[in-house]
Every structure is written in C-alpha cells, then in structure tokens.
Write a structure and sequence with these properties.
- Helix content is 45%, strand content 16%.
- It is an alpha+beta fold.
- It folds into three domains: 192 residues, Triger factor/SurA peptide-binding fold (Orthogonal Bundle); 120 residues, Chitinase A, domain 3; 102 residues, Roll (Chitinase A, domain 3).
- A four-stranded antiparallel beta sheet has the order 4-3-6-5, with helices on both faces. A four-stranded antiparallel beta sheet has the order 8-7-10-9, with helices on one face.
- The radius of gyration is 25 Å and the shape is globular.
- The relative contact order is 0.16.
Length: 465
C-alpha cells in the first residue's frame, strides 16, 4: 500500500467539508463515530511496505485443469468456521444501494455484491482477531454507536430501525459493522499504536514546509484507485469508466471508493484530504489543477493501475478565504401543493420574489413570511463554502439584510436566504505540534494495519458455499 500524502498531516487542524446523511451512511458507522486517518495510493510506498518480488515461477502459457465459472455467485461464505449468509450480504448491499438513491444497474449491482462479500469477510476476520486477543466490544457500546448514527439522520434508534427496514436492510447489519470497526480500532490501539514512533524533527519539518507554502493553492481531493497489470489494464479501464458513468448519474463517490478503491483511503470514502499539486504524481497534479470543484476526472493512467479523481474543494494555504466566512441566515420558504403545474409554480414564485424585494432587513422576515404563508428557519453558523456552489458567489456579494433571488423547484417549493450577519474568515494558523504528531502516528498505524489485515486474509480458511 502507498502512504498518505504529507499535506493531509499538515492540514489536520482544518475541518472536513460537510457530508450528506447518505454519504455518511456509505462511509460506514465508524466514519461517523471515530474519525480515522487513511493511507493514500498516490505517494511512493516506504521501503518496508513494498511486497517482495514473486518467486512463484509461473508458466507463460498455463493449461487449466478443471472448470470454474467466475460468473457463478456463491451465496454464502464460511470464514474460519463462521457463516456469512446471503441475507447478511443482501442487507449490507442495501445500504450501498440506498446511498446511491437506488439507482444501480443490474450489472453494477452484481459487482457491488462481490465487493460487499469481500468487505464482510474482512470484517469477520477483524472481529475474530480481536476476540482472539481477548478484546471485547460490549452490546452497550454497539448500541451507543448505533444511536449516534441515528442522531446524524435526525432519528431516534427506533425510527432508524424502521428507516433501515424500508431500505431493505436491517439494524443488525449496521450494528455488525459498528462492532467490526470498533473491535478493529481497539485491536490496533493495543497491538500497533504503542509501537509507532515519530521524531520531533519530522514534525518540525512539516510545520516549516507548511508555513513556507503560505498562499499557494491546495486541493481537497477524492480518489478511487483500481490496480491493473499490462494484461488486465483494458478491463481495469473499462471498470473505471463504468464507475465514472455511475458517478455522473448521481452515484455516491464515497460509496464507490469504499467498495472498489484498492487504496486504503477506501475506508474514508477515498478522501485524500488537502493536498498540493507538487505532492501528487504528475498525471494527478495536472487533473487537479484543471478540474472545477465538483468535477470528476479519469480514468487517469498511473503505474500499476488507474485513478478516478474528484475535486471536492480548493483554497490557498494559510490564507484567509472569504468562503470560510460564517453566516447568520434566515431561510424563508413556501411549498407547492401536490399537483401544482409549472405555470402555477412560476406564478407563485413570482409573487414570492416580489415580496422579497420589500424586505428591509432580517427584522421583517417574520412579517413578510406571514403574509405569504411561508415558513422561517434560522441558522447562525453556516460557512459560505458549505453552501451549494450556485449560492456561494451570490452570498459573497450580498450586504447584511439582503436576500438571495428565489430558488427551488416545482417539487421542493421555493425559498430565499436572508443574510443577517457575517463573521469574516480569519487568517488560518498552522496546526500545532501535537496535532501534526498525532496525525503522523495515525498514518503509520494505518500502514501497519494494512499489513496486519493482509496477514489475516492469508492465514484465513474461507469456504464458499
């Protein structure tokens, strides 16, 4: 495995972008409960992490004795004597489908199913290894984690139970995932973390480089890496193109990264964090500089495979960014009754727009909303960069008391945002020594964790039924 690019360490003090509930579900329960570091595919691997040359002495033109149809799907797997049922696979697959709003073609569904089986096998191995080391995750801890996930969906655990059933999944499936992730984290904390060392000089060097880079551009990127050999590269590229097509049709990047990416950043939905062009391979650097925020590029050829790159955001290092300003907003909205025609919606929106023009600051929002039958929602902590891109430039040009033009749709209704206050962004400071130290330790822990999991896979007895 590769190692995470150093810029993610340097920017550990800066917050992650907001993610939708569906994306959080796709990332898995631990992404909501325990924010972990990950390892990127895009930087050179450390010497002790490179697999040894093969000594298998394979023939160039082997003859295959016996038949095996790779298209025959095995419904269950027994991992070191522990059964993974077809129902387990179906329920976990339903979570992935839900994250893609149910829009998954049949051929893509089968590929997702195979990946889910692999994920469940890894999860089972992690839980088994934790138990072998007398590490226990109690039912109370699992329930607490489940409740936190439910709260992120603004539901009680009972309501979330019903939501999962509506998605053809189950509370049991998600709780099993929570157990696996907590057990693995606890196992790593005992077996690996205490033996990871970071020198003070390394930390100081990172902080110095960050301060020296002040004002240069950096990018928040997501990556899906698919490995391939010269013989399989054509199929690898075709797989990447299918994934890109699904992403263009509204698929969740985080979900596809988690299920298909062969970089260990798959665990966090392919998130590479904040990164500078100089720290990327030339092919990825060029794509990152040319992409607009929200765009996807690929398949991008790299040594050993191809990458799909998502540009999540862009900023200047340690420089005040107007999009980091925190806004105090009042949202005024009206809904259209079922059956409203486009013409009726347009007329109603026009009336709404005329009423907005009479606003004289936030103090009159309630009065105007009452005349329109509109609802009002307040939020005093919205960052400009967390708004939809179409609204960001509008907000940056607004004065206190002004409202955005009406926006919405015939199905969602129409709304406006009234600017009541703005706290401008301050110049960012470099992360502290302890923050950089902690992130470096996490990254090295994750590199060793990948080797640990590979060893568990190698020694496992897996029987497909």
């Amino acid at each position: 495995m590769g190692r995470r690019c150093i810029c993610a360490v340097e920017e550990v003090a800066l917050k992650n972008i907001a993610k939708s509930p569906r994306a959080r579900l796709a990332l898995g329960a631990l992404g909501l409960i325990l924010a972990g570091a990950a390892v990127a595919q895009t930087a050179p691997a450390p010497q002790d992490d490179v697999p040894p040359p093969t000594n298998l002495n394979l023939p160039e033109n082997p003859t295959i004795f016996g038949k095996q149809d790779p298209n025959v799907r095995k419904a269950t797997a027994i991992v070191n004597g522990e059964l993974i049922t077809g129902t387990d696979v179906d329920h976990r697959l339903a979570l992935v489908v839900a994250a893609n709003q149910g829009q998954v073609p049949p051929d893509e569904l089968e590929r997702l199913r195979l990946q889910v089986v692999r994920n469940l096998i890894d999860e089972t191995l992690q839980i088994q290894e934790a138990k072998a080391n007398e590490i226990e995750v109690t039912q109370q801890e699992i329930d607490q984690g489940y409740a936190r996930v439910a709260r992120s969906f603004q539901r009680t655990p009972a309501q979330f139970d019903e939501f999962l059933r509506q998605q053809n999944s189950s509370p049991k499936s998600l709780k099993r995932q929570i157990e696996g992730e907590l057990a693995w984290q606890r196992l790593l904390s005992r077996q690996i973390t205490p033996f990871v060392n970071v020198a003070d000089e390394e930390v100081q060097s990172i902080i110095a480089r960050l301060n020296a880079s002040k004002g240069t551009a950096e990018y928040r990127l997501g990556e899906i890496f698919l490995s391939g050999t010269p013989d399989t590269m054509e199929q690898t590229v075709a797989n990447a193109q299918r994934i890109i097509e699904q992403l263009k049709n509204g698929g969740s990047f985080a979900t596809y990264a988690r299920q298909f990416s062969e970089a260990s950043t798959a665990a966090v939905g392919g998130d590479l964090g904040w990164i500078r062009a100089a720290q990327l391979p030339e092919q990825l650097a060029s794509a990152a500089q040319e992409l607009q925020v929200g765009q996807v590029a690929g398949p991008i050829p790299l040594p050993g495979g191809v990458s799909i790159l998502l540009k999540v955001d862009e900023r200047q290092i340690l420089t005040a960014d107007p999009r980091d300003a925190v806004l105090s907003l009042r949202q005024m909205s009206i809904a259209f009754p079922a059956g409203t025609t486009e013409a009726q919606a347009t007329q109603r929106a026009s009336q709404f727009a005329s009423a907005i023009q009479s606003l004289q600051g936030c103090g009159r929002v309630d009065e105007v909303a009452k005349t329109l039958g509109a609802t009002v929602v307040d939020n005093d902590s919205v960052r400009v960069r967390d708004l939809p891109p179409q609204l960001q430039d509008i907000m940056l040009g607004m004065q206190i008391g002004q409202a955005t033009p009406p926006f919405g749709s015939p199905t969602e209704g129409v709304r406006t945002l009234v600017l009541c206050g703005r706290d401008d962004a301050q110049v960012a400071s470099a992360p502290s020594f302890d923050q950089v130290m902690g992130q470096l330790e996490e990254e090295r822990t994750n590199r060793r964790a990948q080797r640990y999991l590979r060893d568990l896979r190698r020694d496992a007895v897996v029987d497909y039924r």
